[in-house]
């Protein structure tokens, strides 16, 4: 009888969303007058066909790009202060601020 609660608890733990949780990441570098970023997840998988936005500090959209099959985007370096946002819609979004260059 004691085995049933243990088995049910184990099954519940394995099937819970927390067991498979991963968060978005955004790794960017500046190359000449452009920016190259790779959007991915903490489990190592790339985020292909996902949206990455460049926004001003006032949250005005500068541009919106879609990642390629390797999770990469490229864009000309925006002028002024900005940040890049990768928000796949779950967990916390990944941000990369221009000051990090």
Automatic annotation (TrEMBL):
Alphabetized UniProt keyword annotations: Signal
The keyword Signal belongs to this UniProt entry's keyword annotation: yes
Domain of life: Bacteria
Annotated signal sequence range: 1-21
Protein name as it appears in the record: Carboxypeptidase regulatory-like domain-containing protein
Lineage, opening ranks: Bacteria, Pseudomonadati, Pseudomonadota, Gammaproteobacteria, Oceanospirillales
